[in-house]
Amino acid sequence: RLINSLMVNHFGHWFDEVSAIVSGKSALVDFFPLYENLLGYLSLPFFGVFGLSIHTYTIFTTSLSALAVLSYFFVFRSLTQSHWRGLFLYLSFLGIAFLPLILVPLYSSFSYHALWPFRYFFPSVLALVFCWVLRSATPTRLLFLGFVSGMTALNNLDFGVSATGGVIVGLFLSLDRPFYCIPRKTAKTILYFVAGFAAFLLSFTLFTWMRSGHFPKFELLFRYQKIFALYGFGTLAWPGAGIQFDLYLTYLATLLLATYDSFTIQSKTETDKQRIGLLAFAGVFGCGALAYYVNRPHPWILAAEFAPWGVACALLTDWVLTRVLTKWREHRVISRVWFLPCLVVFFHYLLFVYKLPSNLTASVAERMRLSSHTESSYVKERQAFLEFTQAHTTRGETVAMMFWGAHSIAHELGLKNSFSLESKHSIILKSQVTEVIAQIFEAGTMKIISDFSESPTEFLELKDAMKAAGFALTQKSTSDSALQLWERAQKR
C-alpha cells in the first residue's frame, strides 16, 4: 500500500518531464526539469508513433529499465569471455542490486519505476560502451565514448557526471603503462575523448536552437544541485552508523584494486584493461551516486543506491575468482595482498544471505506511513485540477499552471503551459520568482492556475509578484479551495 502511494505521488514528477517535451517545450530554454534533460527528446519518436498516455509511458520506461539491466550481462560476458561466468556475475549483481532494504512495504531499486530509465539507463549504456572501448581504444571508439559520456552527464547530473568521471579515471588506469610514462598516448586519448564530448554538446546546442530558436541556458544547468549542496535545501539528518559505510568501503576497494593492477601489471592484456577500467568506473560512479544519499539520507534513497553497489560487488568477485583460480592452477600460494578483497567479497555474500532479509530499521515503515499520502487522495486532487482547468480554459490557450502534473494535464487538454518549472514548489530562490513572472509575460499569459493553500505566508513573495504584475484572484474551486484562478485584465 505504501509503495502504491509512493508510485502515484511521484508519478507526476517523471511523467510531467516527458509530457513537457512532447508538448513542444525545450529543456534549458522554456522548461527546466529536475531529473533529466535528454531522455524526453529520445522518447519523441516512440510517443510520436504510439501517442502519449500512461500505458505507452509505462511500456517505454519499462523497456528502458529492461535494456539497462540487461546491458550488464553483456558487460560481464565481455569481461569474462564466458557465458557461464558472465551469468554468474550477472546473477550476483542482480541479487545485490535488487535487494530490498525495506520488507514491509517491499522496496528495492526496481520497485520504483523511474529509477532505472531516468537515472541508471545512460550510465548502464555508458558502462557497456566503455567495456567495448577498453578492448581496443581506437580514435573512433574514443570519440564515440566521449559522445555517449556527454549524453550521460547532461541527462541526469546527479548520476551522469560521476559515471563520466568513472570513465575518465578508468581510461587513465587502463593504459598500457602508467599515464605519466606515455604522455603522448595519454594526450591523444584525452583529446579524442574530449572531442567526442564536445561534439555532443555542440549537437545538443544546435538541436535545441533548431527546435526552439534559442540556445540552451547551460548556466542554469547546476542550479538545483547548488541549492541542495550549498544551502542544504531538503537535507535530512545523518542516520549514523549503517550499511551506507559498507557501500563506500566497497567502492574504495574497487578503486584501490584498479590502481594496484594498473601499476603492477607490466604487460596488460585486453581483459586486464577491461577489468582495471571497469573497477575504476564502478568505484568512481558508486561514490558519486552515493553522494546523492549523503545529502538526503532516506531509506528509500539508500535502497536505490544498491544498483551501483551490485556492479562493484560483481567486479570484486570476478577479481578474486580470477586471482584464486590462476594461483590454484599454478599450485602457488595466494598472496596476502588479496586477503582484503577476498574478505570484502565474502562479507557481501554473508550479508546477502543472513542479514538483509530482516528489516534493518524498526521505525522505517512507520516513518513512511506518516510521510506518505494516500493513493486515492492524489488521484482525486489531480482529477479536480483537470476539471477545474478545463472549465476555465479553452483548447490552445496559453496558461501558467503551477501544479504537480500540470504539464501532462496541459498536454491532455491541448493547452500551452507557460510555466517553465515542474510546479510552484520548484521555486526556491527569490531570483526564480522574477524569472517566472518574466517568462509568463513573455508568453502573453492571461491566466495562472495553481493550488495555493489558505496560509497567508505560503508562497507570499510569488503571490505579491503576481499581484504586482496585474494578476488578481478571480475564481476558487468549489470542491477544493486550494485550486485558484488568477487573471489579469489586459496584456502589457
What would you say this structure looks like, in words?
The longest helix has 30 residues. The N terminus is likely disordered. Helix content is 65%, strand content 4%. It has a five-stranded mixed beta sheet with strand order 2-1-3-5-4. The protein has 492 residues and is mostly helical.
Q: How do the helices and strands line up, and which of them pair or pack?
A:
Layout: H1 2-22, H2 39-42, H3 44-50, H4 54-80, H5 83-97, H6 115-135, H7 139-155, H8 157-173, H9 183-212, H10 223-231, H11 244-264, H12 270-295, H13 299-304, H14 306-330, H15 339-355, H16 364-371, H17 375-391, E1 398-402, H18 406-413, E2 416-417, H19 430-442, E3 447-450, H20 460-468, E4 471-476, E5 484-488
Parallel strand pairs: 1-2, 1-3
Antiparallel strand pairs: 3-5, 4-5
Can you give keywords for this protein?
492 residues; mainly alpha
Low-confidence stretches: 1-5, 353-375
Q: How many distinct helices?
A: 20
Cα-based radius of gyration, to the nearest Å = 25 Å
Average pLDDT reading: 83
Number of DSSP-assigned strands: 5
Assign the structural class, choosing from mainly alpha, mainly beta, alpha/beta, alpha+beta, or little secondary structure.
mainly alpha
Order of helices and strands: HHHHHHHHHHHHHHHHHEHEHEHEE
**Shape, principal axes of CA atoms:** elongated
- Biggest β-sheet: count, sense, barrel? 5 strands, mixed
Strand order of the largest sheet: 2-1-3-5-4
N→C terminal distance: 49 Å
Our estimate of the beta-strand percent is under 5%
Percentage of helical residues?
55-70%
